[in-house]
Specification:
315 residues
Amino acid sequence: MRRLRVIKGWKDLPDGDRGAALAMGSFDGVHRGHQRVIALAAKAAAELGAQLGVITFDPHQRAYFRPDEPAFRLMKPDQQARALEALGVDVLYVLPFDNLADMSDREFAAKVLHQGLGAAHVAVGFDITFGKNRTGSPEAMRAYGEELGFGVSVAEPVADASGEKFSSTAVREALRDGRPADAAAILGRPFAIEGAVQRGRQLGRKLGFPTANVALGDYVIPRFGVYATRTRLPDGRDIPGVANLGVNPTIEGTRVPLLEVWLFDFDEDIYDQVIETDLIAFLRPEAKFDSLEIMTEQVMKDAKAARDLLMPEMD
């Protein structure tokens, strides 16, 4: 079974970890535009008989330069690694961005790509920037490849039928607008929130809809509301459900957004287990109800709507 290798850094690598055909970018979301870049690197890897590698940066450049901005991540590192592995990537190089921020674009190409990683080929997106003050461009990368001896390919933009370019920004906008299906169309799969199940007040259980609660952490915050969901458990089971994403204003509210998922036809203790929940469809905005009875009645309506959507054969 293929297992992605994760290597942190680029210095003093053994020969077996050098010489890959590399796709370079942030790859937050590993969306269909990112997949085009990786496909170019995969084509070069096959032609050269080289490993397929991906370069990402930690922290993300946006977090490094604008640390006070709201959370924006589309995936956690483990999710990113799984998505890359599914695309056939052999090795993921996680480069420490704080050690690179002051490198010129030429220095990065020479020291990191050529000397450190021994790149056989580098694939980049059409809008790539790299090096201090983002002076590097696809054209600059082509020139450095010619000078230093590695091939370069540049992915053209990938767009939907209306010409809208696929991008991580477009995914975030779709999620913030409550359009998970549009986000999924760009990603090539549903947006998913992964995290450990927290212990709550267990009020939902008392009211007849036990929930598994997961903190959003560094994820971009989608529109507050109720979603039809699918949740993967650690043992591989895939459970349909309905979830409230928000601050639960009816029950005193929470200070930080939570994903509270009611897994249908499921009654097992999964506290502290790591689950991954796909947001499939937005059902309604989050609301504050006048009583627990009214809230419970609405939750049951939401559950029926989610069941009808996810499990129509059960009707």
